[in-house]
Write a structure and sequence with these properties.
By secondary structure, the chain is mainly beta. The chain has strands at 22-26, 43-44, 51-52, 61-63, 66-68, 74-81, 87-94, 100-109, 112-119, 124-131, 134-142, 150-158, 161-166, 169-174, 183-190, 199-206. It contains no helices and 16 strands. The protein starts with 21 loop residues before the first strand and ends with a strand.
Length: 208
């Protein structure tokens, strides 16, 4: 009497899917009063650090491990080269007692970039395509936006698509403008007299 045996191929456990690649990550952990241009991000694959969009560093310093703008009538405007145009840019934004602040994506120079603006005075989120210095509002959505509240901003960039989620709404556009620009960042406005300062925290640029 004979028995037949079937040899089955060995099954190896499947590798876990790879997570997103991190190009920039900054929790703004540093000594109080540190200028952002003097601060080293947690991850910065290009190694260039933060740069100010204006001639001076304008308002703001690191305070309590966030970037905070405490200077009235100024805007802190900062950029970092992530080395990638197609990516997910994310940060926490708090307007403090102020009316508006937001994010820059695909920034190439002072006249050509995309800007996402969060406004509590008009209760809107606006996506601007800035071409040769001209601001074009490609999408505007009504939103419930409050002072002194943290908002998670997530902007997904892919090819000619720009899409940003914040405060429960999405603003988006399809346009080839600056679709190879690799710098991204934020602007924090302190134009009002309120005592609560606007700030940004947990800024990152990752693969989709």
């Amino acid at each position: 009497m004979s028995f037949g045996y079937q040899i089955l191929p060995h099954r190896y456990p499947e590798a876990a899917p790879a997570g997103p690649t991190t190009y920039v990550e900054d929790t703004f952990t540093d000594t109080n009063g540190t200028e952002l241009v003097d601060h080293t991000p947690d991850t910065d694959t290009e190694g260039g650090g933060w740069s100010s969009r204006t001639a001076t560093t304008d308002g703001g310093r690191i305070q309590a491990n966030v970037y905070e703008n405490e200077h009235t009538s100024r805007e802190g405007q900062f950029l970092i080269d992530a080395g990638v145009a197609d990516c997910v840019v994310r940060m926490t934004l708090n307007l403090g007692d102020n009316t508006q602040s937001g994010m820059y994506v695909r920034y190439s120079d002072s006249s050509n970039f995309w800007q996402i603006r969060v406004r509590d005075d008009t209760q809107q989120v606006i996506l601007y395509r800035v071409v040769a210095g001209s601001f074009n509002a490609d999408d505007t959505q009504s939103a419930t936006i409050a002072n002194n509240t943290d908002y998670d901003m997530v902007c997904t960039l892919s090819g000619n698509s720009v899409s940003c989620d914040v405060a429960g709404v999405t603003v988006s556009a399809t346009n080839s403008h600056n679709n190879t620009a690799t710098s991204h960042g934020f602007w924090v406005r302190k134009f009002d007299t309120g005592t609560a300062e606007p700030y940004v925290d947990d800024f990152s640029v990752k693969s989709a």
